[in-house]
Amino acid sequence: NAGVTQTPKFQVLKTGQSMTLQCAQDMNHEYMSWYRQDPGMGLRLIHYSVGAGITDQGEVPNGYNVSRSTTEDFPLRLLSAAPSQTSVYFCASSYGYRVMSYGYTFGSGTRLTVV
Amino acid sequence: AQSVAQPEDQVNVAEGNPLTVKCTYSVSGNPYLFWYVQYPNRGLQFLLKYITGDNLVKGSYGFEAEFNKSQTSFHLKKPSALVSDSALYFCAVRQGGATNKLIFGTGTLLAVQP
User: Taking 90 as the threshold, does the pLDDT of residue A39 lie above it?
Assistant: First the structure.
C-alpha cells in the first residue's frame, strides 16, 4: 500500500536513552518532515528535508537529529531522551518542494513516552 | 512571519445542523491554505486546500471552506453534520519560500451530538 509508514507505533524510553523513529514512503516524494503533536500546541515542525542529502531544522529541533540518505527514508533520532520529549510524532511527505499542490501525506504516528 | 489561528478549542453541534470551524491566517503574499482532519489514534488526513481561484473550495466528506481575503479567514463548513464527523480539525498555511513547510493551528475538536 502506497503511503507513509512509521515504526514503532508505541515506545517507552527511560530518560537518557537514545532511539530512532523510522519513517518510510513509497510515493517518490521529495519533501519529508517530522512533527510532534502536543495537547493545546498543535503540530510543531522538528526537521524537514527537500531531498536526499538535504535536511534543515524546523521550529523545535533541539534534542533531535535527522538524515536523508535515500528518497524513501527519513529517520528521526532522539539523542538522549528527556521527559519533555514525551509526545506523538508524525512523519509527513509531499510531492515537489517548490509547488505546494498536493498537501501532505501523514504517517499514523509514534506515541513516545519518556519516563 | 506566517501564522494561523484557530480561536475555538472545541465546537459542539447537533447532528443534522450546519457546522463551522474557524481559521484565520497571517501571511505575506498569496496564501496557500489547508484543512486536515485527525480521527482518534490516527494520522492527519487531507480534507481540502485553497491555492487560487474560487473562494469556495470543496473537499472530502462533504466539507467545504470559504476563503475570505479581506477578513484573512478560511473557515471550514458543512451543511449537515454527522456524528462520524467528530474529530480534531487542523488549519494550516504554507510558509513562504521555496519549501513545502506547513504551519499548523492548534486544532479544534468537533463534537457532533446525536
Answer: no
